[in-house]
């Protein structure tokens, strides 16, 4: 599924690069903005996994169905609301992003189409979470594959005029995203109906919503807060790059291309993140703190070592990869510079991603929130603005700031792992009070549970 997500972004950027550097720069800006618009949906999706999986695990099917209906309501309402608000304040938003005049018309068109897409995108995000909560992971995999195939066909067809289709240029790229997400959403809705999850009892009355919503928010808000600050930080970073004194459009396009190449390295890093969460969570649940620490250190070492080796192997291919994604030489040079700094940061980036998963498994997400937010807002952005606008006055200052922030972030996470009592956030301590047997101390958790807080609904 992560590979399909990667292919969607990679093809978008490649096709945009074949059209024009301004299109590639616009794709980078608006794609990052889209993640910001989706923060509420992703937070609700995380909360729904906990609520729905625990309800099914406890045999409370009616409550599970009502939570499914509740997240569908939320997806439609917030997706539509952000679309309307975004349309009303479109030009103010583009002004905040410091979009250069050269790419303003293209960026505005992409924003129009992507805002129109939000209701369907919100539904896709929450329905994927509904299926994951029931371990029906094949459905999200299939819907992501459908999105990838439709996106590739329409990108090549309507963006470049392949397959005998009309060439709409950048407009074809924008509508390719709309078509792919809509197709995936329609598939998910059909699968909800097919699995008997879309019926009258799925949609709860308002009286139940008032009781069920607080638990969903309790789980979703911390995650949403971290994602909000993270994606907002990236938007500010793009705004800093867009307003650079020199070569800003090439820098935006090169940064967009470089990020797509870099994301290939993040696929296994995300796997280490999820593995750490599962293994450390299981060890702490069984009361084995020393084992949890050993697993954390070993997994972090393996992740950093293996991904550093992959980065070293990728180094000789930086130039051809950049030229492949960015045909214009000036943009390719920016992509190469971006990749050089970010390949240097791979050990630190992978370490912080793996340690973030470990803290999630322990329930210590407050540490991840504090460190990630500090690294972005107190280190990366001030240094990027200072170096990019006053010292070097080009994008290289932004790239160096990203490297420095990753070193800070991974060092802080490692300090927490070794020196702080992050174990206390697990259920182990609370469950062990006053119990006489191992069964009492370590009761089996509800299937798929993500939190120790039980809903009172």
Describe this protein with a few key phrases.
single chain; 457 residues; mainly alpha; 2 domains; 18 helices; disordered C terminus; antiport; ion transport; MdtK-like
Shape: globular
Gyration radius over CA: 23 Å
Q: What's the structural domain tally? A: 2
Helix/strand/pairing class, anyone?
mainly alpha
Helix content: over 70%
Based on DSSP secondary structure assignment, what is the total number of beta strands?
A: 0
Question: Topology as H/E string?
Answer: HHHHHHHHHHHHHHHHHH
Low-confidence stretches: 429-457
| Number of H/I helices | 18
Largest sheet: none
Q: Write down the overall mean pLDDT.
A: 89
Q: What separation lies between the terminal Cα atoms?
A: 33 Å
Which range does the strand content fall in?
A: under 5%
Task: Please explain how this structure is put together.
The chain is an all-alpha fold. It folds into two domains: 1-220, no CATH class; 244-426, no CATH class. It has 18 helices and no strands. Helix 1 packs antiparallel against helix 10 (248-285), helix 2 packs antiparallel against helix 9 (206-242) and helix 3 (39-57) runs parallel beside helix 6 (104-133). The two termini are 33 Å apart. It holds the Pfam family MatE. Its main location: membrane. One of its GO terms (molecular function) is xenobiotic transmembrane transporter activity. Keywords: Antiport, Cell membrane, Ion transport, Membrane, Transmembrane, Transmembrane helix, Transport.
